[in-house]
Design a protein that fits this description.
The protein contains 13 helices and eleven strands. It is α/β, with parallel strands linked by helices. The structure holds pseudouridine-5'-monophosphate and manganese (II) ion.
């Protein structure tokens, strides 16, 4: 369909036959979790989508080709190879032209999903306005992508490594709807409540599917932040995790970590400081998001 994209056969068939497809990102594999947990999590996410009646499409760039749906060897490569670039929107043209490998962020997974015709995407957390972002202007390209690319993104909210309040303000400015699944409180990834409210509470996948259909029928470009709190049984103690996060943010500053390296640095630090408790929570919240995304995708195919 496009000279730069390879769509896996089963994904192409699903798209042609109105079978729900859910996209998954690869930055979470290459830069968000350590090996081998990253591969375990990626594979389990894919099987949860299949079990629910959908087709998974993990997205990455391999040797300059956009891959929509990865085979086992490609997934393994994304999880093991230390030299894979983190690819946000600005990086795409160069990584493709240079025929390099790249892990797609929320922004580029949305972009590639949309090029392939996929409307739903599940991940862990989205990027946002970094702390002190009002001075550094470090604002994730994920937010701008949400304002222009037609993909619904299910996440467990925004980590408090970011400035959650300013992230929500910025999404409002960009016209991106933020809904809470079964909650009025915007979740903060490891914890169910950030203290900030959502615009709308929604209690069923069909409500979300309908709202997105309306948005796109009206030609209003952009996605939606579907915020799905981590299940209670996996929630971390807010005081504990926020203390570890504060310490990790401080350490990133001290070491002069900047730009695209900040999030991977902090995540790795959290996993080591919590002795993988944060990694465990991260995996479980991803599975919870995958389950919701496939339900929304199913409802959307019925509208
Ligand atoms: N949050 C996580 N894990 C991740 C990311 C965010 O808990 O792996 C990744 C996502 O791919 C997201 C990206 O799109 O970090 C945001 O990076 P930046 O702030 O550099 O845009
Ligand atoms: Mn940034």
């Amino acid at each position: 369909m496009n000279e730069y994209i390879d769509i896996k056969d089963e994904v192409q068939e699903a798209l042609e036959n109105n079978i729900p497809v859910v996209a998954l990102e690869s930055t979470i594999i290459s830069h968000g979790m350590p090996y081998p947990e990253n591969i375990i999590s990626a594979k389990k996410s894919e099987s949860l989508i299949r079990e629910a009646g959908g087709i998974p499409a993990t997205i990455a760039v391999i040797k300059g080709r956009i891959k929509i749906g990865l085979d086992e060897a490609a997934l393994d490569h994304m999880g093991r190879d230390a030299g894979i670039a983190k690819v946000s929107r600005r990086d795409m043209p160069l990584i493709l032209a240079k025929e390099r490998d790249g892990a797609t962020t929320v922004a580029t997974t949305m972009l590639c999903s949309s090029l392939a015709g996929i409307k739903f995407f599940a991940t862990g957390g989205i990027g946002g306005v970094h702390r002190n972002g009002q001075n550094t202007l470090d604002i994730s390209a994920d937010l701008v992508e949400l304002s222009r690319t037609n993909v619904g993104v299910v996440s467990a909210g925004v980590k408090s490594i970011l400035d959650i309040g300013r992230t929500l303000e910025y999404l409002e400015t960009l016209g991106v709807p933020v809904v809470g699944y079964g909650t009025e409180n915007f979740p903060a990834f490891y914890t169910r409540e950030s203290g900030f409210g959502v615009d709308y509470r929604v209690d069923s996948p069909v409500e979300i599917a309908k709202a997105l259909k309306v948005k796109w029928d009206l030609g209003m470009n952009g996605g939606m932040v579907i915020a799905n709190p981590i299940p209670e049984e996996y929630e971390m103690d807010p005081d504990y995790i926020n203390r570890v996060i504060d310490e990790a943010v401080e350490s990133a500053e001290k070491e002069g970590i900047r730009g695209k390296n900040i999030t991977p640095y902090i995540l790795a630090r959290l996993h080591s400081k919590t002795r993988d408790k944060s990694l465990f929570a991260n995996k479980e919240l991803v599975y919870n998001n995958v389950r919701l995304a496939v339900q929304i995708a199913i409802e959307y195919t019925r509208l």
